[in-house]
Amino acid sequence: MFAIHSTESGNTLIFDDVQGDYFSVFFSSSAQSVKREVWAYTDAYGLANLFEYLASHELPWQSSEKWESIEGEFMLEATCNSRGIVNFKVSISNLGITEPWKFEGNVCTELGQLPALAKSARQFFGVSAG
Q: CA–CA separation, 78 vs 105, rounded Å?
């Protein structure tokens, strides 16, 4: 398991329970919580690659960087403002035929926290397939 705890609020994003091509993602805030199993197929390590890429920045960056699961049930998009606050926009959904739903939330951290998050992500998701 590894988690991102917001430095701006009580929001938390937790990655847990890797089983083959699947893992669970859990978002919680003071108002709501949502948990979803995510099918990463062969690209779960891509999330670790994203965290490592973000951690390679010593200064705030201008673009947004994201990872999305193959079926779109989970998306994580990172931006960084000029003060070094990193915002992770989280989208978790169930876009099935019956009763579709979608959740969006945010978890903020600081630029200096990214190396530790990248290390935790790599330990959780494992080495890349390449």
A: 12
Cα 57 to Cα 65: distance, rounded to the nearest angstrom: 12
| Region for residue 36 given its phi and psi (left: phi exceeds 0; alpha: psi -120 to 50; beta: otherwise) | beta
Facing residues of 68 across strands?
75
* H or E stretch covering 104: strand 101-110
Enter the tokens of residue 108: 């903020």
Count, residues in the chain: 130
Contact 70, 86 (CB under 8 A): no
Tens of pLDDT, residue by residue over 37-90, are: 999 887 888 999 999 999 999 999 999 999 999 999 999 999 999 999 999 999
pTM flag (> 0.85) = yes
What is the spatial distance between Cα 97 and Cα 18, in angstroms, rounded to a whole number?
26
* Cα gap 111→47, rounded to integer Å: 17
Side by side, the strands of the sheet bearing 65-68 are 65-68, 74-80, 85-94, 101-110
Question: Pairing state of beta strands 65-68 and 74-80?
Answer: antiparallel
